[in-house]
Each structure stands twice: as structure tokens, then as C-alpha cells.
Amino acid sequence: xxxxxxxxxKSHEPEKCVLxxxxxxxxxxxxISLRAINILRNVxxxxxxxxxxxxxxxxxxxxxxxxxxxxKHNSFNKxxxxxxxxxxxxxxxxxxxxxxxxxCDPGEGLIRExxxxxxxxxxxxxxCAALTALVSSGLPTSxxxxxxxxxxxxxxxxxxxxxxxxxxxxxxxxxxxxxxxxLLEDLREICGGEREIQVYRELTKKFEENIGCNINEVxxxxxxxxxxxxxxxxxxxxxxxxxDVDFNKIELKQELYDLINAGLKLPEASKYLAKKxxxxxxxxxxxxxxxxx
Length: 293
What we know:
By secondary structure, the protein is an alpha/beta fold.
């Protein structure tokens, strides 16, 4: 494949002593920009989360360059070496496995250190799974929160999902395929099965899937299926205008805390009060504040 590129803007790139943060495709290699290819082809060095992934891009667009591995396992040792390269006059491109570097990867630390050392950082924008899913979802996009991967620790995970259950903004999550079913069950427990949700699998790839409407339907869809691929989840924010307000919130909140202080877990206390007062359990959940009353 013989590819010739002509650049009318920023044709002097890459410049010396600059860290280029380069967005790469999240699946379909055709999504890479001409500017990104120019940078990757001509920088002194490419710092890659996984050199095998970057080599696929280099092979597809027929160029070569010097690569070093830069990931969560070696970032502590590699950051000083990359900074030294930049200070010595070299240009460096930072890429992740897919999408924008520093989003749920160790690039954040390198960028921070470069800024602290007075090194210029230039972003070459590219695909991002979170935004790709958001704009495709049909859910509100003007205000949203990105939460990355939920913690594997139960307490931290429940705290995050509780915050999402109360959030009026659209929420975006990443999740591994082997933990997706558990996450969906937790979301149903805390947010309610009717909460609107869109689940994206393998965005931009050949077998891309978009599953959704509400949490119950997504759980049913995946019930007897093996889940593989990259997962991005978009959850609609809560509509407080539709909340049932025909009860004394102050008294109910106090009763909730009394039950928890007596030893009940939040799910148990919420289930009990929801049944007692004929309310949706998520209403009780949304009253709880782990930081205090």
C-alpha cells in the first residue's frame, strides 16, 4: 500500500522536545487521522501501551519507527527515561492500546510529569470509546460524567453505583466482559430495572453491538450468552421531576439510618422500607449518603 500524505497545516510537526499525545483507533484502523500518522511516522520515539497494537498501525500504513513499551507495569521506571529523551531534543509520541491516551491508562502520569518539567504537550485528537458510545446512545449529552472502570472492591463499587443512581447527568462506564453481568445485576439492584441504559460492545469493529433500552432488557439479552470484547456502558441520569414525593422524606431518611446503624446493610434496609411504604427501592437508595446525614 503506497500512501502519500500532504499536510497544509502544522507541516513542521513533529517538533523537538514535544510530547505528542496521539489518539488511535478504538477498533477500525480507518479511523486514524492523517495528522496522527504523520506524527507516528516522524517522531523520534513512540511510547506504546502495547507495542504489538502499535505495530498493527505501522504495518497497515507502511512505516516504521522506534518503539518502547510504556504501561502500568513499567511506567514508574519509564517516565524518567522518556523525560530525558524529551529534554535531549527528541520528540516522543504517546499512544495507548486504543483511543485517547491517559483515559484509564498510565499516560496520565507521563503527561503530568512532562507539564511539571516545562515540556510542551500537544494532543493529536482521535477516537474515544466513551464519547463514541455517548453520542450514539440517544441519551442526554449536554451533561455527563465518565467513571472509567468500576472498582473490583465491593464497598467502593457500591458507593460508585449509588452515586450513579442519584446522578441527574448521563453516566459512562467501562467494564470487562467477564464482569459485565455482575455489574448489570448491581445496577438493577441499586438503580432499578427500568433505568434507561445502552451497552456497546466492540465499538467500530466488525461485530459491533448496541444493546439497550433498560437494565432489565439488557440483562435478559446477555443471560445465556458468552460476552467477549470491549464494553462501554451509558446510563441515563435520574429524572427527579418524576420522583414519588407522597411521603415524609425526613422521617423516612431517619428510619433508613436507624436501620443501618442497627446493623442492616443498605440493600436490606432499602428493601424493607420499600415494601413497608410501597415505594420503589431506588427511592430509598437515593436518600442514603455514605458521608453522613
